[in-house]
């Protein structure tokens, strides 16, 4: 099975950027350290204010499910939600 | 200086996908092995036929310049060009 890439686009409410980045600073290392099926997970600012992209890669579908079901994602994800200005946009990719 | 992320979107001519992927199979390991300032470089198929995205990360601006100036990028990039249906779209990101 091919690895799965994800580009997650997150729009953060004005004034919530610092809080959002702070939660992510806890989440990203937890993902990398705690999910053996994750091979990449990094947060980036885009050229548009308040718009972020997370670049992610997982070994397979089960690894993406393990990510969503993880304690760290559920706990810290719940803290990210109130920072967002809308639902995340998720683009799924297939590694070549 | 923050690390630099890049999402490069490449549209490949119909029928040239196999040739394109073959060149990339040489290029990606050369980037990862030969560029100390590169920390990620991986090719993905998107949900749209013939459209690929490369997810990339570099330590700094100098590392992006070293990538573009590298022998492997210049040599293998020249082989990718004839496979493409248009100019690559490059989105630059800033690591948080």
UniProtKB/TrEMBL annotation, chains A, B:
Task: Indicate yes or no for the key word Oxidoreductase.
Answer: yes
Please give the InterPro entries that the UniProt record associates with this protein. ABM_dom, AI-2_Isomerase_LsrG, Dimeric_a/b-barrel
**Which SUPFAM superfamilies did the record assign?**
Dimeric alpha+beta barrel (SSF54909)
- Domain ABM, chain residue ranges per copy: 4-92
**One Pfam family from the record:** ABM
Q: Which keywords does this Swiss-Prot/TrEMBL entry list?
A: Monooxygenase, Oxidoreductase
Q: State one molecular function term (GO).
A: monooxygenase activity
What is the recorded name of this protein? Answer: Quinol monooxygenase YgiN
